[in-house]
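Dear Dr. H.,

I hope your travels went smoothly. While you were away I took the liberty of generating a structure for the chain from your last submission, since the lab meeting agenda had it listed for discussion. I wanted you to have the full record in hand beforehand rather than looking at slides cold. The sequence, exactly as received, is reproduced here:
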Amino acid sequence: MAATSAVKLTSTIIITLFLSATFIPAGKSQESFERELSRQEMGLGRQKLSHLHFYFHDIVSGKNPTAVRVAEAAVTNSSVTGFGAVVMMDDPLTIGPEMSSKIVGRAQGIYASADMNNFGFLMVLNYAFTEGKFNGSTLSILGRNPVASVEREMPVVGGSGVFRFARGYAQARTRTFDRKTGDAVVEYNVYVFHY
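The corresponding predicted structure, in token form, is as follows:
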């Protein structure tokens, strides 16, 4: 008789716990992983549009390269475009086209040859700024870079610091390319909405 009472009590407790967990109103649980926020809560004021202009120095030669090949496919040796090659970069961003001009940040990330027939890179990188009002902030780029084109456009997909919630685009134009060394200087105009 005591065993039957214990089983009934245990069953009642389990059913009660199940029902109470099932009927908790949505949004009342403290274990919810999301909630809606207001713009004011996040400190989001008026949206701004900024234009950034700088030069990207991709140095693959010499004792201190800023871009190094970290992987390649076996087919790379026979591919005209280097399809499958992956390069890791930490390229300086400068105000002027000369390497001696003021450094305002770094382009950090990867580019990979992602086109078997034309020279086209997949660009996955952050512009990490080290100067001025954008010091400590980043912009994230993710897109296709058809490097043989005179002007290319890649999307800005986000950012950090001043550039939280950023969106926009980056226009790239190669200023110099040394066929012997592979070193390049690329001019960037970046147009970005941010708060």
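Two observations you may find useful: The first strand starts at residue 48 and ends at 58. The chain has a mean pLDDT of 88.

With kind regards,
E. W.
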